[in-house]
Specification:
Chain lengths: 211, 580
């Protein structure tokens, strides 16, 4: 077993085990496959949201009033939330740019700010849940509303964990550098994904309900 | 060229110490086993111990075998449920199984067979074992992820079995609401959980396959030299990536309806049951291709090797997999012709269904043309492959009849459908898995399966399949509904034939099971290349070394280049006699 891992380090260009990346030079031959793996996974994951979105649109198309009467959609908090989440995508990119210039502390700063913004978003979401005039089971709109925002919130949470993971690992000097930062890149990609999903969600759940 | 390889991979240790040998290797015919370099051979163990197969192991070959053995275990369970159902159907009355239990067996039979036998065996088992070997990689792109994907399967099966303590799910494998909302909530929730686990496993596995096939080929392998099995696995994985999450979405909604008071599928509260059907079949029609595309790949490997002829139409077969993958995403409504679908939809999906049969036909013609004039060796693997060909044509044609909306309105939900999908699933997928096992068992275990018992197995299975499933078409045309424990006495004689056939099928597993067990321990030792195959998995030892090769092989010819120039004469010799 040990032997196997050891050889694959040299052979498989480090896509085996994060710990194994230490010894081998990075970015040799072909791009690190983990980024491709993540992109493939996210393409698949987006289809799950696709299923929710399609169902939502069918419910919407079949209903006489949308949202049904008595379900008032609150706009202020989600609009602020949207602003925070969308800007955080730019902030996290600053972190990525920083590490590419070998500026570890810059990366840590921007990633910490992103984490803070993500946490604020989640806080805003919880606040909205607590103050809204309808619950999960009120009607078909609220079913969709809570399910879709809830699932998205779960993804934000996972993204937050990834970012915190990056910060945690970055405390060891030499773990990340200008040539070695796949983990950082992956956290960023995931964060952008979460952001894009939110923009669609916001359009469907908030903007389209105003017409 | 060699220089470029060395630079691109920078296998510093292996290549630099072995550089001379490596270059010499390039001149050798492909099926010469690569030499061992003295020091690295001692460095790590060459084979796994039996107990390694019970651990969280990240070697793709161990994972492949773990998938196959686990899936076979679940196959036996699903098979026992089927036998119990057939026993119940021996008589029109409900006298053997309680109807609720019958429904639970019906559901779990289908679920075990699809999600825990065919999908994990064909994709997880053969895919993991073969893809890295065939493309000349030392492992999959993400070995740990691969192991995680496997280990989601045993708990999924355990949950399904445990659900019987709560009465089990009773809705059929389709779990349509409102039925799934009003019968046995606990059993249904456990069923959903189990499917979500195998679905996750399938997605993680697919990511691995796509990346491995696209990026991890040995540099000397051109895209036109990739074995057709890998093309099939690529198409399968892409299909799984696109369709599985949609099923997950549907099942999450169902779970919420059952347990948390939402009303996505409750029409009285603004919900819509048809949406579930769309989400379900958006996955589950592609799922039938998940179950058959890898098998098509296995066919394309076995037929040229045992007929000693180049495959007919390599590109046509490769691209038809991609065509099936693409068109297969747009035919799902043919399962919903009777769900109040509007006429334009019926029209559209009838046409797309008829179109999707075309690339399948391309493959069938390719195989038949490969057989034509070949030096056919009637090994068990080949018998199963030819058996598959004949059965699948029947299933494919009944599929086309079903895809035609006016006919389907008549036979939907009758035994005709049951006959159709068992011809494609049993006569297709299961035959293909058997063929694959007879073909690659020597590579997996280092020992040959006994051919005589293999042939007994084949004959019993072949006759049993026809006896069990052919009469079902007639039953369906006469109007016998599917998913019932009791039926009208007029159907009795055909049902008895089916039950008799199912007993034969049950018996047919016995010679296979003991053959595999015995051969694994005591069978004749297999050479590195017992069938004289040309793809890369035959260039390493049987069973392969832990890292597959000491020195990566260099591809000098395509995987099916029998009798073509560019290949050394040694590989053209007559088939080794030890085989038959
Ligand atoms: C030539 C290609 C095929 C065509 C045109 C086709 C068409 C159809 C149609 C129209 C139905 C719906 C019947 C109904 O419910 O009324 C059906 C059912 C089914 N088919 Fe196929 N099929 C094809 C190949 C396959 C393959 C390759 C498999 C699996 C390996 C498969 C597995 C199934 C299954 C499992 C069902 C039953 C689903 C249920 O429980 O309702 N089919 N097929
Ligand atoms: Cu279908």
């Amino acid at each position: 077993m040990q032997g196997a891992i050891e050889t694959s380090e040299t052979i498989l260009n480090s896509s085996v085990d994060p710990a194994a990346t230490k010894e081998v030079a990075h970015h040799e031959g072909h791009p690190d496959l983990r980024v491709w793996g993540l992109l493939t996974f996210l393409a698949s994951e987006s289809l799950m949201f696709g299923g929710f979105f399609a169902s939502y649109l069918i419910y919407r198309g079949g209903a006489a009033n949308w949202p049904p009467e008595g379900t008032e959609v609150e706009l202020l908090v989600p609009a602020i939330n949207t602003f925070i989440l969308v800007s955080s995508s730019f902030v996290i990119h600053l972190g990525d740019t920083a590490i590419k210039k070998n500026n570890l502390n810059g990366m840590r700063l921007w990633y910490a700010v992103t984490a803070l913004m993500g946490a604020t978003f989640l806080g805003g979401q919880v606040y909205e849940y607590l103050t809204l005039g309808y619950g999960l089971t009120t009607n078909i709109f609220s079913n969709c509303f809570y399910l879709m925002t809830g699932f998205h919130g779960l993804h934000v949470f996972v993204g937050l964990l990834l970012i915190l993971g990056v910060l945690w690992r970055s405390r060891r000097s030499g773990h990340y550098s200008a040539t070695k930062h796949v983990g950082i890149e992956m956290a960023e990609i995931y964060w952008h994904f979460v952001d894009i999903i939110w923009i669609i969600l916001f359009t469907l759940l908030y903007i389209l309900t105003m017409f | 060229m060699t220089k470029q390889l060395v630079r691109k991979f920078s296998y510093k240790r292996l290549i630099l110490t072995d550089e001379k040998r490596f270059m010499a290797q390039a001149q050798l015919p492909l099926n010469t086993p690569p030499g061992m370099s003295g020091d690295s051979a001692k460095e790590h163990p060459k084979a796994w111990k039996w107990y390694d197969y019970f651990t969280f192991n990240i070697d793709h070959k161990v994972i492949g075998i773990q998938y196959l053995v686990t899936a076979f275990f679940f196959y036996l369970i699903g098979g026992l449920m089927a036998m119990a159902m057939r026993a119940e159907l021996l008589t029109p009355d409900s006298d053997f199984l309680d109807p609720t239990l019958y429904n639970a067996f019906l559901t779990n039979h289908g679920t075990f067979m699809i999600f825990l036998w065919i999908v994990p065996a064909a994709i997880g088992g053969f895919g993991n074992f073969l893809v890295p070997l065939m493309v000349g990689a030392r492992d999959m792109a993400f070995p740990k992820l691969n192991a995680i994907a496997f280990w989601l399967n045993p708990p999924a099966g355990a949950i399904l079995l445990a659900s019987f303590f709560f009465g089990g799910s009773q809705t059929g494998w389709t779990a349509y609401p409102p039925l799934s909302l009003i019968t046995n909530n606990i059993g249904q929730s456990m069923w959903i959980l189990s499917i979500v686990l195998v679905g996750t496993s399938s997605i993680l596995g697919s990511v691995n396959f796509v990346i491995t096939i696209l990026f991890m080929r040995v540099p000397s392998m051109q895209l036109t030299q990739v074995p057709l099995f890998c093309w099939a696995m690529l198409a399968t994985s892409v299909l799984a990536l696109f369709s599985t999450p949609v099923l997950a979405a549907g099942l999450v909604l169902l779970l919420f309806d059952i347990n948390f008071g939402t009303s996505f599928f409750k029409p009285d509260a603004g919900g819509n049951v048809i949406i579930y059907q769309h989400l379900f079949w958006f996955y589950s029609h592609p799922a039938v291709y998940l179950m058959i595309l890898p098998i098509f790949g296995i066919m394309s490997e076995i037929i040229p090797v045992h007929a000693k002829k180049p495959i007919f139409g390599y590109k046509a077969i490769a691209y038809s997999s991609l065509a099936i993958c693409f068109v297969g995403l747009f035919v799902w409504v043919h399962h919903m012709f009777t769900s109040g679908t509007p006429p334009w939809m019926r029209m559209f999906f009838t046409i797309s269904t008829l179109i999707v049969a075309v690339p399948t036909g391309v493959k069938i013609f390719g195989w038949v043309a490969t057989l034509w004039g070949g030096k056919i060796r009637y090994t068990t693997a080949m018998l199963f492959a030819i058996g598959l060909l004949s059965m699948f044509v029947i299933g494919g044609i009944s599929g086309v009849t079903l895809g035609t909306a006016p006919f389907d309105l008549h036979v939907h939900d009758t035994y005709y459908v049951v006959g159709h999908f068992h011809y494609v699933l049993f006569g297709g997928s299961v035959f293909g898995i058997y063929a694959g096992i007879y073909h690659w068992f020597p590579k997996m275990t280092g020992r040959m399966l006994n051919e005589t018992w293999g042939k007994v197995h084949f004959i019993l299975t072949f006759i049993g399949t026809h006896l069990t499933f052919l009469p079902m078409h007639e039953l369906g045309l006469q109007g016998m509904p599917r998913r019932v424990a009791m039926y009208d006495p007029q159907f009795i004689s055909l049902n008895q034939i089916c039950t008799f056939g199912s007993i034969l099928l049950g018996i047919s597993v016995i010679p296979f099971f003991f053959n595999a067990l015995w051969s694994w321990m005591y069978g004749e030792k297999a050479s590195d290349n017992p069938w004289d195959g040309l793809s890369l998995e035959w260039t390493t030892s049987s069973p392969p070394l832990i890292e597959n090769w000491e020195v990566l092989p260099v591809v000098t010819h395509g995987p099916y280049d029998y009798g073509m120039n560019g290949r050394s004469a040694t590989t053209d010799k007559a088939p080794s006699e030890s085989v038959s």
